[in-house]
Amino acid sequence: MSQSIRTRFAPSPTGHLHIGNARTALMNWLAARHFGGRFILRIEDTDRERSTEASEQSILGDMAWLGLDWDEGPDKGGEYGPYRQSERLVFYQEIREQLIASGHAYPCFCTAEDLEARRQEQLGRGEQPHYDGRCRHLSAEEKIRFETAGRQPSTRFHVQKESVSFRDLVKGEITVQKEALSDFVIVRPDGMPMYNFACMADDHHMAISHVIRGDDHVSNTHRQILMYEALQWEIPEFAHIPMILGQDRDRLSKRHGATSVTQFQEAGYLPDALLNFLSLLSWSSGSGEEILSRDRLVQEFGFDRVSRSASVFDTEKLDWMNGVYIREKTDFDTLARLALPFFRQAGYPVNDAAAARPVVRALQSKMEKLSEIGDKARIFFLDEAVPEDNEAAETINGAEPQAVFRAFLSATEGLPAWDSQMFMTVMKQIQQSTGIKGKGLWMPVRVALTGQMHGPELGPVTEILGLDLCRRRIQQAIG
Ligand code: GLU
Known about the structure:
With about 475 residues, the protein is mostly helical. Helix content is about 50%, strand content about 10%.
């Protein structure tokens, strides 16, 4: 494929970044990075009522969190800008005039009420609703009459072809016959362009070579192709990726739980894990492997391995994958930075990533999601490690556990330094002096220090707690 491949992600800033759109962004990003091309971010904000600055910021923030960096965009600029559709109205105006002049578009004065009445008639006759072409051939007088009556026309594209076909990079040949295509509006009466028109104009002007998007857009693609042809513009490649479904095989929606990237972030997923998971919703590696780093995804991406059928969003699999990513992460600074909000949320006195780091490291093998920090890190911040249940309480009562605790206190009295290593040495000493070993030695100490019978490795736990707190908790378990 050519060096000059250019892909784009074109969100409408009308809410958070939906997981399906994040998947679309990812596919475009992977294609651009794999083929050494450029990835463009374009904001499609022509729906002025629903578009907000806050949504745009949130989408950009979520993209950045996922690590989907773009080469050109509203915040970055680039030689094909501006990258916000609301700032490109003059371009659309020009193209609209060009289409009218060449007989491919015309002003349409039909009102919403007229159109609805005729739609009902068509339905009554058992016809597929379509624009009947009423304004296609208005006389000059009729136009003047409407204009003097103050009617603002929309602009319609005149469909003159019998059918439209294109070869989709994922789905293969797709053809639509004329019956399914009636003249469609490209510019609203208020002068704002419709999605199909603005999108096509921008994809052309921004030299987009590959349009990769969800297959809910297939029916738009035909209309866009008709306009490319009318303007005698080169048609980009199209790749339509199948929908994401919920477990019940219905299209993924709020009903199924978290659907925005923000929600997944708040639920404690790592960006790399979510990215890996999303990539496998529409694509698979030739090797069949599932845990694939960002670099490998970029390396292995290809349209030939994009799946043709819809995939089911399997939260259990995502959780598993996230657990793998947490466990295998060796960059503890990044892990701590990602985990910091969860310490804050739980109200733990952890002020920066440096303070979060040892705790995150100690808990690393015990979590599938960072949101478990609230629960799992509690042991580090308790005033008193009270046994969590009767069974735990049992393990610290009795002659043996109490002997272990006394030995612990005497072995640690006045120790000048304390760390994980030191704790292990102390435990060895206690074993020698008391003759108690294995579970009988370790379980009482675990419960005295954490209140729990299961948990992270004790060495790192004691290092985080510090010698004073360890001694205090052991003291509390005596008697
Ligand atoms: N703004 C459109 C959307 O969010 C873009 C679709 C496209 O990629 O062409 O659905």
